[in-house]
Amino acid sequence: MNQRGFSLLEILVAVAIFSIIGIAAYGTLTTVQKADVRSQQYAEDFERLQRALWVMERDFMQATVRQVRLDGDAPSKVLFAHTRGSGETDSDTVAFTRGGWLNPFNQLPRGEVQGVVYRVEENQLQRLHTLYPDQAAGVEPKVRVLIDDIESFKVRLYVGESWVENWNKELTLPNAVEVTVNSKAFGTIRRVFLMTGAKLEQAPAATTT
């Protein structure tokens, strides 16, 4: 029986075929790895979004009717400050006081009432808070970034039986707040959070006889 080896051409063809298969397999593996990285990043971003919405819900639901003094000035009659957006992001800012900030056995050097601000800065949705609601001038708040790549943050307030885009009521909290966040990763997210709608009764002015 004659034994015949592979010709040079056959070897070259086989090498070329295996090279093509290897390149295709590597490309498939790279694509799968990139998709896995994107999937993990999306999951992390979504978890962060969910956490941010939970933080907002907790804050709005625990908003309290407390007047605030800034740098020793007279107590402000605005319990819920709402500033309409302007500038590049056209994003709103809200500021209010919330209770329920747990301080077990009063071990921490602060109270259980917290001043809170939500704003967009450098395309980040930020939550600012102070250790005490009444602050002296020059005291810097703590800043926490909730969501990155924010395009806008808009707020509407519900009072009585209607939604309003400008809030100017004194000594009153809204009944609800609607938050609309435009994110590069998730598009438009809209949530409604209930509030107490409570009012702070102002003491009557002193009279003289």
Question: What key phrases describe this protein's structure?
Answer:
209 residues; alpha+beta; Pili subunits; five-stranded antiparallel sheet; four-stranded antiparallel sheet; 1 helix; 9 strands; disordered C terminus
What does this structure look like?
By secondary structure, this protein is an alpha+beta fold. It has a domain of 136 residues: Roll (Pili subunits), CATH 3.10.610.10. 26% of the residues lie in helices and 29% in strands. The protein contains one helix and nine strands. A five-stranded antiparallel sheet has the order 1-2-3-4-5, with helices on one face. Strands 7-6-8-9 form a four-stranded antiparallel sheet, covered by helices on one side. The C terminus is likely disordered.
Estimate the mean pLDDT confidence. 80
Q: What's the total number of strands?
A: 9
| CATH classification, class level of the domain at 59-194 | Alpha Beta
Shape: elongated
Secondary-structure element series: HEEEEEEEEE
> Would you identify the CATH architecture of the domain at 59-194?
Roll
What name goes with the CATH superfamily of the domain at 59-194? GSPII I/J protein-like
Poorly predicted parts: 203-209
Q: Biggest sheet: strands side by side, in what order?
A: 1-2-3-4-5
Task: Report the radius of gyration as a whole number of Å.
Answer: 29 Å
Structural class: alpha+beta
Set down the secondary structure blueprint.
Elements: H1 8-61, E1 80-83, E2 93-98, E3 114-121, E4 124-130, E5 142-147, E6 150-159, E7 162-164, E8 176-183, E9 187-194
Antiparallel strand pairs: 1-2, 2-3, 3-4, 4-5, 6-7, 6-8, 8-9
Protein name: Type II secretion system protein J
Family: Belongs to the GSP J family.
Transmembrane segments: 6-29
